[in-house]
Design goal:
The protein is of the alpha/beta class and 280 residues long. It is 31% helix and 12% strand. β8 (204-205) and β9 (208-209) form a beta hairpin. InterPro entries: Rhodanese-like_dom (IPR001763), Rhodanese-like_dom_sf (IPR036873), Thiosulphate_STrfase_CS (IPR001307), TST/MPST-like (IPR045078).
Length: 280
């Protein structure tokens, strides 16, 4: 598949019809319904394997580790083998909500060395809008043999704290959470001092990603340029990967702080800024 990190529903359909052998991963996850297996079984892309966010793309730990700590390399490798992945496979991931959880899978697998990986632009809604067929039930492929020698773990809490002194730290949460006016999930409201707000909505058009030019303009509006190192965080680390994916669409490298605000706000002694400005 070509270099874009996105693929359209029609393009994916045509490749599947041509017998391309693409591995499909269905990452159904929402905060209000973390387990998406029932929805997956009710209808998914033909041949897609269900991916569990909480046990395969994340782990559980202390609050000071954040709400979605990264899985170990071994855990991710075991999961990828369950999905049937082999070295050199082409992979497409999708979800049913703005590609946020699909972006987490994209970021983790790309960081573990999967070179041919893309996200279905618009996710399941785009596939349905194109009136393409779905299948029901579970898909259980033969185990794969893929080997992960390493994994991109993003930046640490200390690196995130220092990032505004060397580049732009992007906060991908909704503006009211960034300003500290609302915090529905974490113990403290506000943002990391020095961070600039770039909500996920700024890089989307409906459920699809905006054009590369529009995304680049949104990044530039937040102070990101080709000479400015960019990092992103969000509430629990998922939307930060979505921001990194948007950056890849526009040709902007964005590193991820996976602990994000859930780790920062649960770590004693970390300063908090409020209001619409980055803060000191």
């Amino acid at each position: 598949m070509p270099g874009s990190p996105l693929i359209s529903a029609q393009e994916l359909h045509d490749l599947l019809e041509a017998g391309s052998g693409i591995r499909l991963l269905d990452v159904r996850y929402r905060l209000d319904k973390p387990d998406g297996r029932d929805d997956y079984r009710a209808g998914h892309l033909p041949g897609a394997v269900y991916v569990d966010m909480d046990t395969e793309l994340a782990t559980h730990g202390a609050p000071s580790e954040g709400r979605h700590p990264l899985p170990s390399r071994a855990t991710l490798q075991d999961a990828a083998r369950r999905w049937g992945l082999h070295a050199g496979d082409a992979v497409v991931v999708y979800d049913d909500y703005r590609s946020v959880s699909a972006a987490r899978a994209w970021w983790l697998l790309r960081g573990a060395g999967v070179r041919d990986i893309r996200v279905l632009d618009g996710g399941l809604s785009a596939w349905r809008a194109a009136e393409l067929s779905l299948e029901t039930g579970d898909v259980s492929p033969e185990p794969g043999s893929i080997v992960f020698d390493g994994m991109d773990e993003g930046i640490s809490i200390d690196e995130a704290a220092a990032w505004p002194q060397r580049g732009v730290l992007l906060d991908a949460r909704a503006p009211e959470r960034y300003r500290g006016e609302s915090e529905p999930f974490d113990p403290v409201a506000g943002h990391i001092p020095g961070a600039v707000n770039l909500p996920a909505d700024a890089v989307l058009e409906g459920s699809n990603f905006a054009s590369a030019a529009a995304i680049r303009a949104a990044f530039e509006g937040a102070g990101v340029s080709d000479l400015t190192p960019a990092a992103a965080y969000c509430g629990s680390g998922l939307t930060a990967a979505h921001t990194a994916l948007a950056g890849a669409v526009a040709g902007v490298e964005v590193v991820v702080y996976p602990g994000s605000w859930s780790q920062w706000s649960n770590t004693r002694g970390r300063p908090v800024a409020t209001g619409a400005e980055p803060g000191a």
